[in-house]
Amino acid sequence: MAEHHFRLKANWPGLRNDVGMIDAGNLKTQISIPNEMDGPGIGTNPDEMLLGAASTCYIITLAAMLERSKIEKEDLTLESIGVVDVTNGVFTYKKIIHRPTITLKASASDKEMELVRRLAEKAEKSCMISRAIMGNVELELEVAIEQAAASS
């Protein structure tokens, strides 16, 4: 069994509403508490990073599954929403909604479109980050499958 170690260094020089830094290789950015939680809103924050991790894992997993299934796509886009509940001053990451839009070639068959829908659902359950947060954060999927316009 091979293990992969991902490293992040963080520096937080101040108090609650100050600004820190993280360095995780290709990800180097300022961090702070978001405006929505009465922070300075500078750089990114844990809520955006969790959403970013879940979204990038999902879209990469879906792209790999489409490739393995020999599905030719024109485009693959994703909008994701993180829902944080605030009750009595306690913040809880409640839900992540993924809204992928998969655009297939104009010649895609109904059978291919159904396979793509199944793969979109399977990717959510297969992604490493989805599996890591499952049972703690609700995952919702709203898939849109389109066909590119036929060229004349």
Which terms would index this structure?
single chain, 152 residues, alpha/beta, GMP Synthetase, Chain A, domain 3, 2 domains, four-stranded mixed beta sheet, 7 strands, 30% helix
In the CATH hierarchy, what is the architecture of the largest domain at level 2? Answer: 2-Layer Sandwich
In whole angstroms, the N-to-C terminal distance is 52 Å
Number of strands: 7
Count of alpha/pi helices: 3
Describe the 3D structure.
- This protein is of the alpha/beta class.
- It has two domains: 1-44; 45-147, 2-Layer Sandwich (GMP Synthetase, Chain A, domain 3).
- The protein contains three helices and seven strands.
- It has helices at 46-68, 110-126, 128-133; strands at 9-11, 20-24, 27-31, 73-87, 90-104, 138-141, 144-147.
- The strands form two sheets. Strands 4, 5, 6 and 7 form a four-stranded mixed β-sheet that branches.
- Strand 1 (9-11) and strand 2 form a beta hairpin.
- Helix 1 packs across helix 2 (110-126).
- The longest helix is centred in the middle third of the chain and has 23 residues, at 46-68.
- The termini are far apart.
- The mean pLDDT is 95.
